[in-house]
Specification:
Radius of gyration: 19 Å
Oligomer: single chain
Structural class: alpha/beta
CATH topology: TIM Barrel
Number of domains: 1
CATH class: Alpha Beta
Number of strands: 14
Low-confidence stretches: 2-47
Strand order of the largest sheet: 11-8-7-6-5-4-14-13-12
Number of helices: 7
Distance between the termini: 29 Å
Largest sheet: 9 strands, parallel
């Protein structure tokens, strides 16, 4: 998750890190060889955008503020995060406690219709090997590579009527990056990883979308025109490359940290998306995605304002909700979560739940796992018992299974 302001970076440690530092590894066989170096130059749109051909059954696209199915029916993606593949274990967390299938059963029984699965670029390196799996509980996962664990999640989700959104959570397994590329992992590698995943799941509408890069922040800009920092342009380059392979996928684009001198959570600032939208060759597939957290995660100034929590609705409207209320584009809140231990947090979650209900937005709760130090999970520390205090707030917001 790592939803942070720079000023509080040293004060908060995220439980989704997990594990120890991983070793440097070679490129994975799934990834085409790419040149290292700086981002590719220029915006991606060189001709007029085109409308997609008749939507294929099972896939989704956008229409104004809504996400719709192939028949034009409005749908909501109401999901939950299950993390671990992005960490140094290169495996979903909790497989030491229960079978993979048991967690997927939990997701279905709790009423979620989408899983957001984070991964790291390093996960795709050939030297990356899964760990912390109890193979007596998960015998079918023995000797599988990390990408094959992702395959197993996708197959299990398909069998249960769930859908999957894949999230490039970080480059190296040890930490998030402000930009979508690093010295170790170039933009070329970033794009080619997405191309590889688009090919891998091309014929499977279980995987409905790609969340391009988790929580851009720091030097990341929106609409600056600087190809080294402009996340909007990078999202266009990456989205266009994905659409060359599968134009049916939803391209999910998070915000940045600071726009017009106003800062918020990492990836949560979409103030500029209305005036500078992400443009892709195939229309009607961009979904914007902020992250939102309570005061227990970081002491943001709005939590201590005299009009808290009444100020939250105005803040969210300025930062990202306007995209929906002004019928510009869909919003999917890709992370929201809390330990639910303080009055401030409980009021925050109730207020956000009211906003989601009022606007009919999509979201993904952080997280199924209990081992996020910031938020805990819907599962308690035994990896079995469900925290119904949190779930009771989320339950009325959940949408039906996706057809």
């Amino acid at each position: 998750m790592f939803a942070r302001l720079s000023a509080v970076l040293a004060l908060v440690v995220c439980g989704a890190c997990g594990g120890s530092d991983a070793t440097t590894a070679a490129d994975a066989p799934d990834v085409d060889a790419v040149d290292a170096g700086a981002p590719r130059d220029g915006a991606i749109i060189t001709s007029a955008p085109i409308a997609a051909s008749a939507p294929k059954s099972g896939w989704f696209h956008t229409r104004g503020r809504d996400i719709v199915d192939s028949q034009g029916n409005v749908v909501r993606l109401t999901g939950i995060n299950w993390f671990g593949l992005e960490t140094a274990t290169f495996a979903p967390h909790g497989l030491w406690a229960r079978p993979l299938e048991a967690y997927l059963d939990d997701v279905r029984e709790l009423g979620y219709n989408v899983l957001r699965i984070p991964f790291s670029t390093q996960m795709l390196d050939a030297a990356s090997v899964p760990s912390t799996i109890d193979y007596t509980k998960n015998p079918s996962l023995k000797e599988k590579r990390p990408i094959e664990l992702l395959d197993a999640i996708v197959a299990g989700a398909r069998a249960r009527g769930l859908r999957v959104i894949i999230d490039r959570h970080r480059p190296h397994s040890s930490a998030l990056s402000p930009l979508w590329y690093t010295d170790q992992y170039s933009e070329g590698r970033f794009i080619d990883d997405w191309r590889s995943l688009a090919k891998r799941y091309h014929d499977d509408p279980t995987v409905i979308g790609f969340d391009l890069h988790n929580e851009p922040h720091g030097a990341a800009t929106w609409g600056s025109g600087d190809t080294a920092t402009d996340w909007r342009l990078a999202a266009e380059r990456t989205g266009a490359a994905i659409q060359e392979i599968n134009p049916e996928l939803l391209v999910i684009v998070e915000g940045v940290e600071t726009v017009d001198g106003k800062g918020t959570w990492w990836g949560g600032n979409l103030r500029a998306a209305g005036r500078a939208p992400v443009r892709l060759p195939v229309l009607n597939h961009v979904v914007y995605s902020p992250h939102e957290y309570p005061a227990s995660v970081a002491a943001q100034p709005w939590f201590s304002a005299p009009d808290y929590p009444a100020n939250l609705a105005r803040l969210w409207e300025e930062e990202w909700a306007y995209l929906v209320t002004r019928e510009i584009a869909p919003v999917w809140i890709g992370e929201l979560g809390t330990k639910y231990e303080t009055d401030s947090d409980r009021v925050w979650l109730a207020t956000l739940a009211e906003t989601i209900s009022r606007t009919n937005m999509s979201f993904a709760y952080w997280a199924l796992n209990p081992d996020s130090s910031d938020t805990g999970g819907i599962l308690k520390d035994d990896w079995l018992t469900r925290d119904m205090r949190k779930q009771s707030v989320i339950l009325p917001l959940l949408a039906p299974p996706l057809q």
